[in-house]
Amino acid sequence: MPGRRRRVGLEHGTLLAGSAALLGLLVLGMGAPRNWWTRTLELRFRTDSAAGLQPGMAVKISGYPVGQVDRIQLLNDAQVQVSLTIAASREGLIGRRSRATLAQEGLLGKAYIAISPDLQDYGRRQALKPGDTLPYNASPDLGTLIREVASSRLPLQNLIGRSVNLIDQRLPRSLNQLDRTLGSGERLAGALQSEARAGSDLLQTRISRVSDNIEQSLSSLDTTLRDVRALVRSSDGLLRDIQRSWLLQLLEPAAPTAPQAGQGPAGAAPASESQPPIGR
């Protein structure tokens, strides 16, 4: 009997120990996603409406999860206070310039609280204290956006209608003016081209005439030079003929000669000698 009681007591102890271990594991499993075993920082923000907010929704910085919404309370002044639980390891990214905003993953994704990081004086500024309040920027809901779009649709439609009418009135006139301008430009280009061609032909003709005149002048000058050369040669021959002429020999004074033996008085020639011929 005593042995049997000891075995029953041992079984009961083992069962209690297993139950306690299982309960501990269950508590650990429940506390891990809720950050029960990690040091956290509690921050708050206030808003006029709790629409879209609920406990347990994620809190992210730059799209990375850093905490969750802990609780939502309605205050006496009809304001809604939202408490956030942030991992203490990420509290350095949150400063006095940080703001909380209701965001959404894509168009139909889950909503979450986005906190803008504050990196000014990072590592040197004073850390936030538990219970500090962050500014909150409420995002407009879908109904508000639809009403704003509907209210702006009519002015936008009127503006588009006026723009279309203005284009219909002004565009054909502008196209006609453009066509006329292009036609005038083409005619002007043709006239300039014709004038340039005529001017080039006239210039070429004048250059040809000047070249012909220069060639004729050079030919006349060559002929004149040949005539001058012939005249010079004729003048040289005439001068040589004049020098050999008997008239110049008569005009030149006769050189005195000494009397010879058997001659008469000085200057008298013997009678027997004949006179030199007077002409050639």
Explain this structure.
There is one protein chain. By secondary structure, the protein is of the alpha/beta class. The chain has a domain of 94 residues. The chain is 49% helix and 15% strand. It contains 3 helices and 7 strands. Strand 2 and strand 3 form a beta hairpin. The radius of gyration is 67 Å and the shape is elongated.
Keywords:
single chain, 280 residues, alpha/beta, seven-stranded mixed beta sheet, 15% strand
How do the helices and strands line up, and which of them pair or pack?
Layout: H1 2-31, E1 40-47, E2 58-61, E3 64-74, E4 80-87, E5 100-104, E6 111-115, E7 136-137, H2 142-243, H3 246-251
Parallel strand pairs: 2-6, 5-7
Antiparallel strand pairs: 1-4, 2-3, 3-4, 5-6
How do you describe this structure in short?
This protein is α/β, with parallel strands linked by helices. The chain is 49% helix and 15% strand.
End-to-end Cα distance, whole Å, is: 204 Å
What is the typical, i.e. mean, pLDDT?
76
Total DSSP E strands: 7
Name the helicity range.
40-55%
How is the largest sheet built, in terms of strand order?
Answer: 1-4-3-2-6-5-7
Low-confidence stretches: 260-280
Strand content: 15-25%
